[in-house]
Amino acid sequence: MPVLLFCISVAHLHAQYVFINEFMATNKTTITDEAGNFDDWVEIYNQGAEAYDISGKFITDDLTVPDKWQIPYTESAVTVIPPGGYLILWLDGDEDQGPLHVPFKLSSNGEQIGLFDSDGISVLDSLSFQKQQSDVSEGRTNDGSPDFTKFNAPSPGKANHTDAPEEVAPPYTLSPRGIL
Question: How many domains does the structure of the chain reveal?
Answer without folding.
Answer: 1
